[in-house]
Amino acid sequence: MDHMCAIAVPVHRSGDKMPVGALVVAAPTFRFPPSRIPEIHPLLRDAAQRIGAVWPPAGVQTARALAAT
Which one of 45, 46, 53, 60 has the minimum C-beta count within 10 Å? Predict the structure, then answer.
């Protein structure tokens, strides 16, 4: 989109190569100019790693999946 800037990083479960999700920061360029990407990227990557570290292990069913059965 015109006048928008965004950056995304994958969320990986600890020790897993397949992503389980993504974190995205998107905003109008007057709030998030492309020059801020080097500042935001490490923060976003760190947050994705922290989320991946507590993501349920493969094979663990979520409450939603259990409720559907």
Answer: 60
* Token pair belonging to 7: 């950056």
Of 16, 14, 18, nearest to 54 (Cα)?
Answer: 14
Distance CA(5)–CA(22), nearest Å, equals: 16
9-44 pLDDT, tens digit each: 999 998 888 899 999 999 999 999 989 999 999 999
H or E segment and range at residue 14? none
Residues 6+ positions from 29 with CB-CB distance below 8 Å: 3, 4, 5
d(CA 45, CA 1): 24
Distance CA 19, CA 9 (A): 10
